[in-house]
């Protein structure tokens, strides 16, 4: 997914721009926050520490997703970030989430966001494949 994202730099449908997470993927944030729920040392605020991001991005999905948002750059702009500046200005949602007291709270919020931004959107879910293992049940 990230290769497609950094190769083509297409504007995703329904983008929230600066007010969203990563327009192309939310699951690494959702699963990554679940992965960190019982972690004793890494807190939501740790995303502001470059050493924590660098050391943990290979092991923890959430840290990898944040590091990607901070490092990705479109063609012709050289290395750096798509959004230049402090996380509070370039990705206010990520910055606000980092102020939560626990990964449990972060994960609960990610689940709500996934339900609202993905599962509740017909333009997205109409492309979701269903079958015997995951049947589609039409609402009454």
Automatic annotation (TrEMBL):
One of its GO terms (cellular component) is protein phosphatase type 2A complex. Coiled coil: none annotated. SUPFAM superfamilies: PTPA-like. It is an enzyme of class 5 (isomerase). The keyword Calcium does not apply. The keyword Metal-binding does not apply. Pfam families: PTPA. Its EC number is 5.2.1.8. Keywords: Cytoplasm, Isomerase, Rotamase. It catalyses: [protein]-peptidylproline (omega=180) = [protein]-peptidylproline (omega=0). One of its GO terms (biological process) is mitotic spindle organization. PPIases accelerate the folding of proteins. It catalyzes the cis-trans isomerization of proline imidic peptide bonds in oligopeptides. Belongs to the PTPA-type PPIase family. This is Serine/threonine-protein phosphatase 2A activator. It comes from Auxenochlorella protothecoides. The lineage of its organism: Eukaryota, Viridiplantae, Chlorophyta, core chlorophytes, Trebouxiophyceae.
């Amino acid at each position: 997914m990230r290769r497609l994202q950094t190769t083509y730099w297409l504007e995703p449908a329904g983008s929230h721009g600066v007010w969203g997470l990563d327009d192309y993927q939310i699951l690494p944030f959702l699963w990554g926050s679940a992965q960190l729920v019982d972690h004793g040392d890494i807190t939501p605020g740790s995303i502001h520490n470059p050493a924590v991001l660098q050391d943990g991005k290979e092991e923890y999905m959430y840290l990898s997703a944040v590091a990607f948002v901070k490092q990705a750059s479109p063609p012709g702009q050289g290395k750096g970030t798509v959004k230049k500046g402090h996380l509070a200005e370039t990705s206010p949602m990520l910055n606000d989430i980092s102020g939560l007291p626990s990964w449990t709270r972060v994960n609960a919020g990610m689940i709500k966001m996934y339900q609202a931004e993905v599962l509740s959107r017909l333009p997205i879910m109409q492309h979701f494949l269903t079958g015997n293992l995951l049947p589609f049940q039409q609402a009454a």
